[in-house]
What does this fold into?
Amino acid sequence: MLGNCIKNVRTAVPLVHNITNYVTVNDVANILLACGGSPIMSDEPEDVEDITSICGGLNINIGTLNQRSIEGMFRAGKKANELGHILLLDPVGAGASALRTGTAVKLMDELKFDAVRGNISEIKTLALGSGTTQGVDADVADAVTEENLEEAVAFAKDFAKKAGCIAAITGAIDLVSDGESCYVIRNGRAEMGKITGTGCQLSGIMTAFLVANPKEKLQAAAAAVCAMGLAGELAWARMQDGDGNSAYRSRIIDAIYNMDGDTLEKGAKYEVR
Amino acid sequence: MLGNCIKNVRTAVPLVHNITNYVTVNDVANILLACGGSPIMSDEPEDVEDITSICGGLNINIGTLNQRSIEGMFRAGKKANELGHILLLDPVGAGASALRTGTAVKLMDELKFDAVRGNISEIKTLALGSGTTQGVDADVADAVTEENLEEAVAFAKDFAKKAGCIAAITGAIDLVSDGESCYVIRNGRAEMGKITGTGCQLSGIMTAFLVANPKEKLQAAAAAVCAMGLAGELAWARMQDGDGNSAYRSRIIDAIYNMDGDTLEKGAKYEVR
Amino acid sequence: MLGNCIKNVRTAVPLVHNITNYVTVNDVANILLACGGSPIMSDEPEDVEDITSICGGLNINIGTLNQRSIEGMFRAGKKANELGHILLLDPVGAGASALRTGTAVKLMDELKFDAVRGNISEIKTLALGSGTTQGVDADVADAVTEENLEEAVAFAKDFAKKAGCIAAITGAIDLVSDGESCYVIRNGRAEMGKITGTGCQLSGIMTAFLVANPKEKLQAAAAAVCAMGLAGELAWARMQDGDGNSAYRSRIIDAIYNMDGDTLEKGAKYEVR
It folds into this structure.
């Protein structure tokens, strides 16, 4: 079933508007193309409403936010909501600065997201700060492990239910929940943490997966997480003597480019709780 | 003859000022170095006049325009015109938003460009909107094919003549016209569309080719288009099992790096109409 | 001894705040990860103080400066100074525009840097313009060669002493001085100049080396310069038929990723004057 999600992306070729950081933006664009989507970037407040109107989804990533791009995020997000487009938040660095935390929380409170993707400390920050997630018990560790998995799953479900969106919490073990059930995903490799932007890239393709699979959002989000992790595994298998994180980064995008539905279906490692 | 154009770039090492988008800027810089040029990036209005003054050409790309960089484009463009420098416009996304269309049209109306490079829908948007191209018949299809080639060539010539600059319209078939004659170029591969920024990269090297070949501008622009397409062909021939769009992107820049005049001369596929 | 410096980076995993240009920012992030550090990027004035507070060092690079990011540089730099964090300046393009020269000079005058890294013409611009370096004899050639090495070393020492920081002047021959002694380094390859951003990358890892080796700053800065040059040599040895500057760029980052202390110790080519 997860395999169909990437097939649908390749068929639909969803146009995804990205308001994202300038660190990893090129990789986000290339991995969106690799998975079968089509990227467009625009963060100027005067420009974003027109651009998001012609797209199917909007990926908001606060990685190198500034006052101008923050205004762009709100204007684009409101337009996307009006039009019923897919809307995803990647709260990069929420918790690390007042501006990031405040912006992420305000985005959660003023916009209706289909999905939020971040690491557990970013999602905890949202849980503690946002009015929409009031009452979420965020007393969970800062890394999801086999030992604390049960409480992490409970946290993911609780957050997703109260926020009214899919929560994708990524790390050594990934959790994707819609509030009712939770995919526990064990794809990926630790070395992916030595590349800048694998999280940003995942948020990009997750938006495309959601646009192309509107009736199966939980599955689509889980498929994107599995695809990214599986790409990390397949790319590692192609590493050659002397290769490092730069070759790895390129090979991961290539693995997404070459991934078909069957490969994803067979390679996805998950259980549903 | 086209082969000489890249030789001249390698001899002249033209310094090219780029006001370009943050998505593909690194690739634009590296491909400019690969072809023998030297890139410098600056978009702050207070900075651009000084920077463009020490360069030979200015490449204006509106891919991720904002109010500040738009001001930079006009200030730099006016200075480049004053100094008689090569000036190129890449109207990324003209037609997709009011700000992009309006900015591109205003740039055309207030500045004197040596060349404009875009896809046919972007160039049609300019044809319809700009006072300098009034009366251009833009009733041409949105993709140049063998079937509609004759009318597309007529459109390219008409646009170039009325705009008073070289029109480089790129796609499956590329057209480069100065208003009198038109190069019809059949280099390249469809897979280049799966990489972000091959168009931006072409605009970068085209600026360098124009600076280094000031007396043969039509030929220089056509040579840049052939070089980029040929690089796409040569890079594809080097693709290995498991490679995807990320490896392809890197191999294209490398193909430009290794391209000499003879390779370009022999590999260029064009006719002049 | 230099080999220990990279070992210490891998052990300490220093978090480095970068206010840097959007051309090479992705490479700076990936090479910081490759050497064992951890990068974070932020240039919004409202954000930078919080971000720099959680880091160990701040790398200020003026490559695509704008009025907003300039304000961010001063605010972040003052906070870094208050906290006693490592602070490095990369004055990209100082001398090429009034804004760049003025900004770099003002940064030197208002902040206390641990190190400044640039090419000789950039450092000469600082020597001539900054109050903190008054009286430095900048009558030195614009390229360091074996012929003018003695006067270049004298200039590096004089600049470092008067500026009260480490001066890292990079080019065909690299000089790293603390005002008392000067490392003369002969690692690297000319082809590194055909890649955009090897200087920016060096500034990034030098900041990490300084954070991880706070008691041996001169050695740490010299080790970073040797590591970058050695990576250029090792990467070149891995170049394959058809590779160009794009493959080279990736292989250099990979060489840093795979470099251990012994490799650096044995491969570093330097004398101390």
Remarks:
- Strands of chain B lie at 15-19, 38-41, 57-61, 86-90, 115-118, 166-169, 174-177, 182-185, 270-272.
